[in-house]
Amino acid sequence: MAKQADKRPRSIFEEVGTTRKSVATPGGIDRGRADARRGLRIWLGLLFALVVCIVFVGGMTRLTDSGLSITEWAPVSGAIPPLSAEDWEVEFANYQASPQYELMNQGMTLAEFKPIFWWEWGHRQLGRTIGLVWALGFAGFLLTRRVPAGWSSRFLGLGVLIGLQGAVGWWMVHSGLQDGMISVASYRLATHLGLAFAILGLITWYMLKLGRREVDLLQARRSAERKVWGGMTGLMHLGFVQIILGALVAGIDAGRAFPTWPLMGDSFFPPDPFQLEPLWRNFFEDAGLVQFIHRMAGYLLLILGVVVWFRGSRSPHRATRFAVNAVLAMLVVQMVLGIVTALYSAPLHAAITHQLGAVLLWVLILRARFLARYPRVQSLRKIRK
User: What is one term from the GO cellular component aspect held by the record (predicted)?
Assistant: First the structure.
């Protein structure tokens, strides 16, 4: 079939018989992926919200001593809560056989048991929901071939971490069901919370990268601010360590040990910080030493934050400067929250606010780090000289 002749008038300087060539459309390499990226970000955004929610519910579960109310790990059948009086009696009887009941909650009634059961059941149900949302979303995007090149392994790795988190959760709970235990092992709690923040960090980073085209990221990387990037990377690592230390504090209720500031009681150092044997136990089980290390790490984090802010505040890119300012502001807020939490012996509302503050600070650090790596280049008129 002959091609339809070009009916547009030719220039008087164009030779007869010359074939017009189509001009390449800018951004053609990313065409067809915009909707996929938007959909992926919505999916990741839902996962992000669910992970933040489970961090909150997990914190409440710990603060209300509810984590050991369910003594079995049933990933599938456990999704169904007790539906009859007989079911409730069975659950309560299982809890009554646990060391926590015998040593701490002797005489608790069924009515008093139900609230702590619902906290733990809700925590586990959120974990199941996160796994389901990941699996359905990943399978859907994979089957419809809407996953950008190189991203399948990243999303699969995210799913592996989510599954691992469920296993770590039971590993943590199992430690609290051993003889003589009334709560979970603090180092296992720290592992569980640390993995949650690692998952949250990966989701945040993936959302940030998918928010811009590959060609834009490649161009932006040429303007990367290495010193700010390096400083934010250090802040990210130290911030993660501080999160782990905070979990150790929560695991042994060390936040209630010294309701004073800036001193710990009457001195800078806690009294008798190395009285447990063997020596390593003090770093996990001595309330004074654990809280002291958490405080010192907080001071160090703030000092490093000021240094990084000083570098970032001179960035020629407005978005980077704003992101760095937000990190420093949240660092100050988080430190104040920590001091208030300690002074009032870690009341529930202050402790959970402090934990959520860590989530916000973590995300802000990652965002500032991303913008240092991939700056949003402004027009010449808006760039600070």
Answer: plasma membrane
